[in-house]
Amino acid sequence: MPALMIHLLLAKKIKPGGSILFFIGNIAPDAVINWKEKDITHFRNLPDRAEALAALALQTPPSDDFAEGVLLHLYLDWRWDLFVRDKYIKTVNGGNWVAKYRKELSLAGSHAFHQNMWAKDILKQMASFNMAGYGKIPGATPIELKKLLSRINKWHNENNIGPSAIFTPEFVGNFITKVADEYNNWRNLLLPRHG
Asked: Which terminus in the chain has less CB density within 10 A, N or C?
């Protein structure tokens, strides 16, 4: 999975004027604390992740900003895992890829936050949004999501540590553009069926 700011970059690319609920939905799936549970809620435990995402897309009304954000989050994680994370794992010597990977994601996320003027305001609005307005968060509670939003807002405001030499701004920008186009085409094919 990419840094949470990378999720917000994609959300902003897909819906530049999206609601705060849409942006919160793009973070919500990572409020799940337990990694085994997160593998389930992100469909990583299934033999066909694409099929599970397509089924979710068919059930997600585009008018539900929160649910649409959740769908976009899960889609990006799927594409990132396939084309970025898995490739990165093969390049790390010594087997301890997780700590190195997280460090590079922190660098990339911090850089993205500090280079995009809109990010500070959106994270502040997300952190202060009333959790009673959240949509359904598979595997997590509204309190867990609220804590995550507050934590990432605080962390980004206190840390200016990027960019990453691995997940460079150019790499992230190109990947976001590619996935945005791909998502829009995929989503149009899988609009919910009614009636």
From this structure: C
Helix, strand, coil share (%) of the chain residues, nearest 5: 70, 0, 30
The amino acid that residue 120 corresponds to is K
CA-nearest of 194, 8, 13 to 119 is 8
Tokens read off for 11: 């959300």
120 sits in which H/E element? helix 117-128
* Per-position b or e across 21-44, b if 16+ CB within 10 A of its CB: bbbbbbbbbbbbeeeeebeebbbb
Type of residue found at 19: S
The answer to whether 125 and 182 are in contact (CB under 8 A) is no
Q: Which residues contact 160 (CB under 8 A, 6 or more apart)?
A: 110, 114
| Paired tokens of 137 | 């968060």
Provide the 3-class DSSP secondary structure of residue 110.
Answer: helix
Residue reference for tokens 């397509």: 54
Report CA-CA distances (Å) from 124 to 3, 94, 127, 182.
Answer: 17, 39, 5, 29
- For residue 94, the model assigns a pLDDT of 65
> Which residues does the chain have with pLDDT short of 70?
94, 193-195
